[in-house]
Specification:
three-stranded antiparallel beta sheet; 73 residues; alpha+beta; single chain; Arc Repressor Mutant, subunit A; 4 helices
């Protein structure tokens, strides 16, 4: 989900479909990340669009990618 949102904003349904998980599970994950200040949510009509809010999150994700690039399974 974070990887997707680094490129833009998405609805719960779009993120759930991309991650192949039920919408309620995606919504729970997104809610927890939002509560901790990592994400922002903007309601437009009946849909809520999530996007990255924490300025340092892209750098953290770069570190994680680099680690797994050096340590593949």
């Amino acid at each position: 989900m974070i990887e997707m949102m680094l490129a833009g904003e998405f609805t719960v349904g779009e993120l759930a479909k991309a991650c192949a998980i039920p919408s309620h599970m995606a919504s729970e994950h997104l809610g927890k990340m939002k509560d901790r200040g990592l994400l922002a949510c903007e309601r437009r009509g009946r849909r809520c669009y999530y996007r990255i809010q924490a300025e340092g999150l892209p750098s953290i994700m770069d570190c994680i990618r680099q680690y797994f690039d050096r340590h593949p399974k």
